[in-house]
Specification:
The chain is an alpha+beta fold. It is 27% helix and 30% strand.
Length: 326
């Protein structure tokens, strides 16, 4: 087997694992209705039942630092098992994920946008959007990618991916849904340093796209999510709760590895390190005003080994209360 093929075998194993987690076969059948996680923004008049065909724009690379090797239009490293079998592009992962959730799709022209355009679109910018023959346009943007490897192999990596759903109605357009996800690649893969890092970048982005699409209301059969949702109410402002959350995540960097903190969205994306059998879990926290206080919601990756909620939520809430009591 050629050397570059053997170097990329570990990359394929990661792809297979990610695909397994995203499939219904990874989990037993549901015995209850799974909760809908809180997203950054959803228009109060919007429902996924309104959506028919979704026009998919090519994924945007909006990283401020583009030094990490990544192409959104070229396939990733060769897997080594079959000729020309490579890691899927971000556009392929997006199309496959949306169709897998049960929504018909079509292709749209590229969207010219900055992150500010997507998050807070102006009327002038919205008028420039091309929906093709659809009334729905979905735009995905890669905000950050990071990976690392040494002479022994992979040290892990992550990607920050955002999604924006726009609706066209009577000639006008509006943003109806947006959210952000963390795609994680754990360490342990062997191979040449540059090949491993490049493969990690592709896998992390595709994993982030998959987790973003888990927030869509699923129309296809099978278990719709691979996470738990927990909430905690605080009788304080979300600004104070945010400061306590940041203090908690920075207090023990060996336990909490924060990949993304956004004060404007009151969102934290991080992994919690477990020294037992379950490794790192992808955790997603958002804070929102509720009545006279603030509600914090944690979306936590499902523990596929023990098939129950991990202790991430209990520990985080306990430490936040301790921070607020100082």
């Amino acid at each position: 087997m050629p050397k570059h093929h053997s170097e990329a075998i570990s990359v394929l194993l990661a792809v297979v694992f990610v695909a397994f987690l995203a499939s219904p076969l990874a989990f037993p059948k549901d015995k209850k209705e799974w909760p809908q996680p809180m997203v950054i923004f959803m228009d109060p008049d919007f429902k996924f039942s309104q959506v028919d065909n979704i026009c998919l724009a090519p994924v945007l690379d909006l990283r401020s630092d583009k030094s990490a090797a990544l192409s959104l239009t070229e396939r990733g490293p060769n897997t080594g098992f079959f000729p020309n079998q490579r890691i899927a592009t971000a556009n392929q992962a997006l199309a496959g994920g949306v169709k897998g959730s049960g929504y018909p799709t079509s292709e749209c022209d590229p969207v010219n946008a900055t992150l500010d355009d997507l998050r807070s679109p102006s009327d002038t910018w919205l008028r420039k959007l091309n929906f093709g023959k659809s009334n729905w346009l979905f735009v995905v943007a890669v905000e950050d990618v990071h990976s690392s490897a040494n002479w022994q192999g992979s040290e892990g990596g992550y990607a920050i991916v955002s999604g924006f759903l726009f609706q066209q109605n009577s000639g006008s357009a509006r943003l109806v849904w947006r959210d952000r996800s963390l795609g994680v690649v754990e360490g342990g893969y062997m191979g040449r340093k540059r090949t491993v890092e490049r493969g990690e970048n592709y896998i992390a982005v595709n994993n982030g796209i998959d987790r973003l699409l888990l927030k869509f209301e699923r129309r296809s059969r099978g278990r719709p999510v691979a996470y738990f949702v927990e909430k905690e109410n605080f009788d304080i402002s979300c600004d104070r709760a945010w400061m306590a959350l940041k203090d908690t995540l920075s207090h023990d960097p060996k336990k909490y590895r924060a990949a993304f903190l956004d004060e404007s969205d009151k969102m934290a994306l991080y992994t919690m390190v477990h020294l037992t059998n379950s490794g790192e879990h992808e955790d997603h926290v958002v804070l929102r005003p509720h009545e006279n206080g603030c509600v914090m919601e944690l979306t936590q990756g499902h523990d596929t080994i023990n098939d129950h909620l991990t202790h991430d939520w209990d520990e985080l809430a306990k430490q936040m209360h301790a921070s607020l009591a100082k």
